[in-house]
């Protein structure tokens, strides 16, 4: 449970999110992702991003590409940089 305290210290806005509308759906998706729970402790801002508009689409693209990035890298960069970096990394894998 100490992880929750650490997450709140790093991202105080967690207190403001609806459990049913925001936290639980994002947690359930996270459990299907290929990340250890420690990723959430490092990057609790994950819960601040839109599930439909940011998390799902970006995670799908990264997973399909075979690139391994932290949640922070997947979600926090601007769209243009995300697209450019993903394209570059995908080409490096080929």
What does this structure look like?
By secondary structure, this protein is an all-alpha fold. It has one domain. It contains six helices and no strands. The N and C termini lie far apart (41 Å).
What features would you highlight for this structure?
94 residues; mainly alpha; 6 helices; 68% helix; transcription regulation; transcription; transcription termination
SSE topology sketch:
Layout: H1 2-10, H2 19-32, H3 38-42, H4 51-65, H5 71-76, H6 79-93
Pfam family, one: mTERF
Keywords: Transcription, Transcription regulation, Transcription termination, Transit peptide
Family: Belongs to the mTERF family.
Write a short abstract of this structure.
This protein has 94 residues and is mostly helical.
Q: Which residues sit in consecutive blocks of at least 5 with pLDDT less than 50? A: none
State the separation between the terminal residues, measured CA to CA.
41 Å
State the helix count. Answer: 6
Number of domains: 1
Secondary-structure-based class equals mainly alpha
Number of strands: 0
Helix fraction by DSSP (H/I, runs of at least 4): 55-70%
**Rg, alpha carbons:** 14 Å
Shape: elongated
Q: Mean of residue pLDDT?
A: 92
Determine the strand fraction and express it as a percent band: under 5%
Which H/E pattern describes the elements?
Answer: HHHHHH
**What does the largest sheet look like?**
none
